Amino acid sequence: MPELPEVEVVRRGLERWVAHRSVTDAEVLHPRAVRRHLAGPDDFTQRLKGRHIGTPSRRGKYLWLPLEESNESVLAHLGMSGQLLVQPHEAPDEKHLRVRIRFADALGTELRFVDQRTFGGLSLHDNTPEGLPDVIAHISRDPLDPLFDEDAFHRALRRKRTTIKRALLDQSLISGVGNIYADEALWRARIHYERPTAGFTRPRTADLLTHIRDVMNEALAVGGTSFDSLYVNVNGESGYFDRSLDAYGREGLPCRRCGTPIRRRPWMNRSSYFCPKCQRAPRAAS
DNA sequence: ACCACTACCTGCATGC
DNA sequence: TGCATGCAGGTAGTGG
Known about the structure:
- By secondary structure, the chain is α+β, with helices and mostly antiparallel strands.
- The protein contains six helices and ten strands.
- The protein folds into two domains: 4-136, MutM-like, N-terminal (N-terminal domain of MutM-like DNA repair proteins, Alpha-Beta Barrel); 150-274, Helicase, Ruva Protein, domain 3, CATH 1.10.8.50.
- It has helices at residues 4-17, 41-48, 150-159, 164-169, 179-189, 202-221, and strands at 23-28, 57-59, 62-67, 72-77, 82-88, 97-103, 109-115, 121-126, 263-267, 270-274.
- The strands form three sheets. The chain has a four-stranded antiparallel beta sheet.
- Helix 1 (4-17) crosses helix 6 and helix 5 packs across helix 6.
- This is Formamidopyrimidine-DNA glycosylase.
């Protein structure tokens, strides 16, 4: 379940192992993995040949490899189970290998996109004047971006007629937050996931953002969260933050603050984990 | 215009 | 043992 910290770990790996290499060949083993590339798999591979990779960038859960000497990028989204791996040529193909990219140098490694559930994918796009792939122009800056507009985020919360967890997962309001870090930040801020955003005060918004940034930075420091081993860095290694989770996946276990058993509630075809004592449900709307 | 819900996909755990 | 069901969940598109 790659969210911002996990994607950033991958971005850093690509910066170290893939940046400034030139592509000799790309191979699409499953067309669904490039479905966002509307011109099709053949166009994707043809246009990648001979191109030079720049410094990888990221916004929220999206990352992209700029192609030097042009205004295009290879956009990547890991979906729920996507992996970008730097592997030796001789490593056997992974069961769910979807795309392979080979390079011109003698380093002996290739870039592989592996994705069990194929919710993620790669695609090639023109950049906006800001250097962002055009198809993700609607994605908001993320809370670790120095240019994240905290005031605009607060005003958006006040304007919306929705609840806080929905808002946190709305990538056009704030990006990079998924189900795990939403539950973790709400637990830290002692806010129930169904609290309406319209009543948020400026201090409450600021406090929640501080907790979001804290939990993400702590996860980043230990290589991200690997809840079910599907998430790995470019070298195939798992992170350790799952050991530090306070709410997510802890149904029935004591809240680390007050000892009350953590509850799980079905929510939007997934789950919300929360402490029923620390995170009081809002009064039902009349 | 805004908000909420669902399809998409596969592997694993669980229940009968 | 084998089959069915539920669950994991980010995003874009649809329906209200």
